[in-house]
């Protein structure tokens, strides 16, 4: 069945880069997404990548996709304390149609 | 601003006492979803509506029901809440599902406590 795996925690210092990794299993996924969840709030789409791309850059965010290895990463440059949140990887557009989420990576940014 | 609204934000109920959570959207999206999210877990899809077409996930307990009386509103009914149903319930909307860009817009969630 489908599964999306992420490490649960990441801690970085303010100003450093953060890299959050994700692996997925559904090779038919059309789009892959990164959502951000701040405490007590719903999920908010950060960025996404279409499956025929291998990189997408959006200001401080860089998404890398290795379709062969089914590996997705999110790099946040110059990480700020306001980036502290839980980041969810999700695959979609595949055989099931709906989004399949990972368990989320809690990013802690130390001043 | 177009948005997804959930009421209430916090709900306390007693074991076995039916409870209804509500969601409304001003985005005029075709699809509405209900997710259950427990601490340190991925959001788990319970069901979704594509317009009036109801789609239940295979492992969603019968205790959970949903209604979508019109495009804007969707309700989650928990007929007999158990302690294991305490969670954050997230409503989301999107324009499309399969084989398409499927950005989902989430509400802030309702945190359900079962006493």
Can you offer a commentary on this structure?
The complex is a heterodimer of chains A (111) and B (115). Chain A has strands at 4-6, 9-13, 18-24, 31-37, 43-50, 55-58, 61-66, 71-76, 85-92, 100-101, 105-110. With 111 residues, chain A is mostly beta strands. In chain A, a hairpin with a 2-residue loop joins strand 6 (55-58) and strand 7. The mean pLDDT of chain A is 91. Chain B is an all-beta fold. In chain B, the strands form two sheets. In chain B, strands 2, 4, 5, 6, 9, 10 and 11 form a seven-stranded mixed sheet that branches. The mean pLDDT of chain B is 92.
Question: Which key phrases capture this entry?
Answer:
heterodimer, A: 111 residues, mainly beta, 6-stranded mixed sheet, 11 strands, B: 115 residues, 7-stranded mixed sheet, 4-stranded antiparallel sheet, 50% strand
Question: Short description, anyone?
Answer:
With 111 residues, chain A is mainly β. Chain A has strands at residues 4-6, 9-13, 18-24, 31-37, 43-50, 55-58, 61-66, 71-76, 85-92, 100-101, 105-110. Chain B has no helices and eleven strands.
What is the tally of beta strands of chain B? 11
Derived structural class of chain A? mainly beta
Q: Provide a count of the helices of chain B.
A: 0
Shape descriptor of chain A: globular
Indicate the proportion of strand residues of chain B: over 45%
Biggest protein-protein contact in the assembly: A-B, 25 and 24 residues
Cα distance, first to last residue of chain B? Answer: 36 Å
Largest sheet of chain B: 7 strands, mixed
Order of helices and strands of chain B: EEEEEEEEEEE
Number of helices of chain A: 0
Profile the largest sheet of chain A.
6 strands, mixed
Q: Low-confidence stretches of chain B at least 5 residues in length (pLDDT < 50)? A: none
Q: SS-based structural class of chain B?
A: mainly beta
Measure the end-to-end span of chain A: 41 Å
Mean pLDDT score of chain B: 92
Query: For this entry, what is the oligomeric state of its chains?
Result: heterodimer
Radius of gyration of chain B: 13 Å
What is the string of helix and strand elements of chain A?
EEEEEEEEEEE
User: What is the share of helical residues of chain B?
Assistant: under 10%
Q: Over the alpha carbons, how many angstroms does the gyration radius of chain A reach?
A: 13 Å
